[in-house]
Amino acid sequence: IKSFLRRILFAFEFLDLQILFTNYLGPESRIMYNRRIDWRVRAIAPFLEYDGDPYMVVSDGRLYWIQDAFTTSNMYPYSLRSYKRFNKKALNYIRNSVKVTIDAYNGDVSFYTTGVKDPIVEAFGNIFPDLFKPLDEMPGDLKRHIRYPMDLFEIQVDIYKTYHMDDAQVFYNQEDLWQIPDELYGDKRQRMKPYYIILKLPETNKEEFILMLPFTPSKRDNMIGWLAARSDLPNYGNLLVYKLPKEKLLYGPMQIEARIDQQTDISRELSLWGQRGSRVIRGNLLVIPVGDSFIYVEPVYLEAIQEETELSPTTRPQPKAPGRLKGSGPQALDTSRSASLPELKRVIVSFDNRIAMENDLYTALYKVLEGVASLKETASIVKVP
Fold it and tell me: What segment(s) does the record annotate as region Disordered (predicted)?
């Protein structure tokens, strides 16, 4: 910002008179124009699509944002169009070909290709040879923080619930359709979302960071399988589906929600809290595979509802305008309800036919697992191509 004219232009652009009069700006001062990370990445590479959930990590004492980027198309030959739109766009081709890192302090942006075979990103790489770097050049500390993108996983889940059938006759008759189960959140029924979890898969020797979601048969509530996406290197991007035996009944999420409601001691306590000027929020149900069975965990939050008396937004005093005073006249009082931050009060855990609600996860787990000798790892594993 070398001249006063530039100060005037920037003050007009940012609607900030302090830029004109501050003493902290000098000839070497610079303004970061695109300060939001979504603006920065789209200004640099508008031809990519971006994940809606960038996340912040710490690396070598600095803060970085990591965001997934995709190449997409809706004209890929002989490919099914996804019913789930991505960034409001229909598509039948998507590749998570790029990982983007943004330095939260100085705004430096780096684009790393993940090594996925993708002719679209290869074409853009030839057009902009200095834009993309191979993933091997990403600092090792940052590389340990990459995760499988949820937006891509949701599209794959939506397709796989039909295309898991590998028998032509079964597929033609649609005999074995799967569906994404529902859950209760608060007091409403909603479609279950994928969730990240640290889990030891049956074929591995250590825990790893995965993204997973269970399946139920179409129009039924029992569990039939679950899909997992691995995030840790060198297995990043591998998908595993665990198909459960059809002859064995394993509770699905809504069946667990119903069994919780049937527990008189739990339902009585939750109803009592709801009558004391508080709102009971039942959080997201987590289905956690353990051997050949599952542990179900659901947090319970309590939110205090307070009555507040304040000026109605439509009749609050307005700032003066030349010639008249806006908002003059009597001011109506508006009584509205404001909620405090929800507080974790209980944790509900279910295993086998046992259900416990305790003050913390450890106590609830101990109560439902007491007397369990061992858990066998017998679920069949099918790798998703």
Answer: 308-337
User: CA torsion angle for 305, 308, 313, 318 (degrees, to 10)?
Assistant: -140
Alpha-carbon distances of 256 from 177, 178, 298, 348, rounded to whole Å: 22, 18, 10, 11
Identify residue 196 by its one-letter amino acid code.
Y
Q: Are 216 and 223 in contact (CB under 8 A)?
A: yes
Residue-level pLDDT at 336: 46
- Where the chain has pLDDT below 70, the residues are 306-339, 371-385
Phi, psi of 190 (to 5 degrees): -145, 160
Q: Where are the domains of the chain?
A: 1-31, 34-146, 152-247
In this structure, are strands 93-103 and 62-73 parallel, antiparallel, or unpaired? antiparallel
Q: Rounded to whole angstroms, how far apart are CA atoms 128 and 147?
A: 26
Q: What is the pLDDT of residue 305?
A: 76
On the 0-12 / 13-18 / 19+ scale of CB atoms within 10 A, 140 is: exposed
Q: What whole-number distance in Å separates Cα of residue 288 and Cα of residue 311?
A: 48
Within 10 angstroms of residue 104's Cβ, the number of other Cβ atoms is 14
This prediction has a pTM of: 0.81
Cα angle 283, 289, 292; round to 5: 140
Q: Which residue has the tokens 């004109």?
A: 20
